[in-house]
Amino acid sequence: MSVPLSLRRKVMLIFDQDLLSPGHVEIEGERDNMYQERLNNAYKMAAWAADNIIKAETDHVFLSCCIKNDKFFDPAVVSELINNVLYNEENKVDNHKIIQAIFEKILKIYVSRGISCSIDISIDQINTQADLAASHKAAIVVAQPSDLSAIGKAVSLDWAERMARDGPIPTLIVKGSMVPDSILYKFNV
User: Fold this and answer.
1) Is 110 exposed, middle or buried (0-12, 13-18, 19+ CB in 10 A)?
2) Domain residue limits at 170
3) Is the dihedral of CA 31, 50, 146, 76 positive or negative?
4) CATH classification of the domain holding 40
5) At a CB cut-off of 8 Å and minimum separation 6, what does 60 contact?
6) Reading across the β-sheet that carries 116-122, which strands appear in turn?
7) What is the SS3 assignment for 77?
8) Scanning 14, 63, 146, 186, which has its CA 20 to 30 A from the CA of 20?
9) What CA–CA distance (Å, rounded) separates 91 from 86?
10) How many domains does the chain have?
């Protein structure tokens, strides 16, 4: 018997946008090895969560990410000429489409395993990952932050560590680099 969506435990998998977005546009088929490694770490986190946290019979999973477009100035204020010089339109990376495609791949794998799943990509500049989890009434968050530099760690906590320490929702931080590569074979990636 299937549990209705409203009665399922909500599990949020929140990925940092820096893990899922390439640092630059792929040129002539070249593969960015660091991006591929980050992408594999994201798949490993999703596989680990499926094996250790998610219960297919009673849970609903949200694959989520908050896309923040960090800009030093507002392009609406700058003239079109300067805007075109600074942002070569042909080389722009559409993070939303890239992340959507990655999540759809994970969603298909989850659905094939009988896991109820949906995608929520926030492009709101104000809402945080904690806001996103609260809006879905998540019972647990599995977070995968980007790796901060040593200086970054000394200065501040990343969003996942803040959620784990201060948030009202239990948050588990899973770094894909700590999950064995063998899990990818079980996950069919």
Assistant:
1) buried
2) 5-187
3) positive
4) 3.40.50.620
5) 5, 8, 9, 10, 11, 116, 117, 118
6) 116-122, 59-66, 9-15, 140-144, 171-173
7) coil
8) 186
9) 11
10) 1
What is the Cα 49 distance to its own chain's centre?
13
Q: Tokens 């590569």 sit at which residue?
A: 181
Pairing of strands 9-15, 140-144: parallel
The DSSP element (H or E) to which 78 belongs, if any, is none
Q: Which two tokens stand for residue 161?
A: 């560590």
